[in-house]
C-alpha cells in the first residue's frame, strides 16, 4: 500500500512543490539550529489586513506539506517590525495631535492612542495576535523591538557593520542621487528625542562596534550599533533578520521582488544563505486596479466573513497564488460554491487525488463532512424568492428538503444560511428587477404549471428539472438558455439563477406552482414572501 509520504512526493499541488523545493535546498538534512524556520512579516503601523491573512495562510499550507514529506521539526515566526519609526499618523486613529507629536519614534515608544496597551506598537501587536489566534494559526509571535533591545540581533548587527562597504555597494545603486548622499544602513535612535534618525554615518569603528553621526542639533555622536541603540533600514534589516534567525522559507508579494533580490545579495555578503520562497501576485479591486491599504479599495477580512465562512476565504488565498485575482464582493458566492464543491468530492476521491484537493490543505488533511449538499447560490435564491431576512424562514424550507438537518447538527449549513441572507440583503435585493412575460413566455409558463400540477408531491429535483427542460424545448425559444434566463428574470428578478429543478424541490412543489400562478396573473413577485404565507 502506498504511503501518504510517497503520494506527497508525487503530488502536484503547489504547497507540495514548494515543500519539495525546500527539502532540496536543505539537502534533506536538519539545519544546525534543529528545525526549519518559516517566517512571515508584518508592519504594525496599521491594523492586520487581508494581505496578512493571505501570507500566513499560504505559508502555513507549505509548512503542512513539508511535515508530510520530512521528519525535520518546523517553526513559524510571525515577525512584527515594531521598531520602525512612525512616518505619518493613520487617519483612522484617535488622539491625532498626540500621535503627531511622536512622529519618527519607534512604534513601541509611542503611547497607545487607544489607552489600552503599553504603546501603539504593543496595541497593534496584540491586535495581530488576536487576529491570528481567531483563525487558529500555529505560529510564534516575534517582536523586532524585543530582538534588538535584548541583544539577540547584536552579533548580526556587528556583522553588518563589518560588511558596511559591501552593503553600501549593494544599496546605493538602488537609490536616487539625493538619497545616496545621506544613506546609511544604520538608523541610530536619538537618546535625547527617542526618534529613529535618517542621518549619514560620518565614521564607524567595526572593532568597537560603533558608528558616529551628526544628531538633529548637528553635534557628533558616537553610538553602539547593538542593544537597541540603532536599527537597520528595512531592506538591510530584512536581510539581517534572515541571517540572524537562519530563515529557511519566506514568501512575499510581487511588489517586493526587487527587495528580495537586494536582501538576498546582502545576506550572501553577511555569510548567510537566502531563504526559499516565492513572490505571490497582488489582488485587484472591482475595476482591475491594484488594492491599496491607503486607498481602501478591495475587501477586508471582516467584510468577507460577514458574507461567507472563513474556509472560503482560505480557499481564495490558496488557489493560484501566482495569479492576480479580483478581490471584491462579487467573487464571494463563486468561491463559497467552489469550497463546497471541493468538500463534497473529497470523500469519494482516492488518497492521491485528495492531496490535490484544496480542502486537504485548508484543513490539514482532515476536512469536515460535507453536509446536505445545499450550495450557497441555492440558499441565496431561496432567500430571494422568499424575500426574507429571517434564517428561520429558510430553515423551514431546508428542514422539509433535508429533514435530518438542523441548525444544531449542521453548523456549516447554518453559517451559510446567515451569510446568504446578509449577502442577499446587501447585494442581491437592491438589484432585483422583475419583468412581465412575453406571449411566448406566458405560454411556456402555463405549460410548465400544468406539468408541475401533474407531478406527485414527492417528485424529486431531477424529475422536476426534466419537465422544465422538456417545456423549454416545446416552445419557440431561440435556445434553451433563453428559456432559463426568462425563468430567472420573471420568477426571481435576476439575470442568473439556480438549476430550476433543484431549486423548486427545495422551495417546494406547491410553492413553485403558486409562484407560477402569480407570475401568470401579473402579480408583483417582489412580495413573494408575504404572499406565499
Description:
Helix 17 crosses helix 19 and helix 21 crosses helix 23. Helices cover about 50% and strands about 10% of the residues. By secondary structure, it is mainly alpha-helical. It contains 25 helices and 12 strands.
Tell me the layout of helices and strands:
Blueprint lengths: L3 H7 L3 H12 L10 E7 L7 H20 L4 E7 L15 H5 L19 H15 L5 E4 H7 L3 H9 L1 H8 L5 H6 L3 E3 L12 E5 L4 E5 L5 E5 L5 E3 L1 H12 L6 E2 L3 H14 L8 E2 L2 E2 L16 H7 L2 H9 L6 E2 L5 H15 L4 H4 L3 H5 L13 H11 L4 H11 L9 H18 L10 H16 L6 H14 L5 H13 L7 H8 L1 H12 L7 H5 L1
Parallel strand pairs: 1-2, 2-3, 9-10, 11-12
Antiparallel strand pairs: 4-8, 5-6, 6-7
Helix pairs in contact: 2-3, 7-10, 8-11, 10-11, 13-14, 17-19, 20-21, 20-24, 21-23
Task: Provide the descriptors you would attach to this structure in a database record.
533 residues; mainly alpha; Rossmann fold; 4 domains; three-stranded parallel β-sheet; three-stranded antiparallel β-sheet; 12 strands; disordered C terminus
Quick synopsis:
This protein is mainly alpha-helical and 533 residues long. Helix content is 49%, strand content 9%. It is elongated.
Low-pLDDT stretches: 529-533
In what range is the share of β-strand residues?
Answer: 5-15%
By secondary-structure content and strand pairing, the structural class works out as mainly alpha
Cα shape: elongated
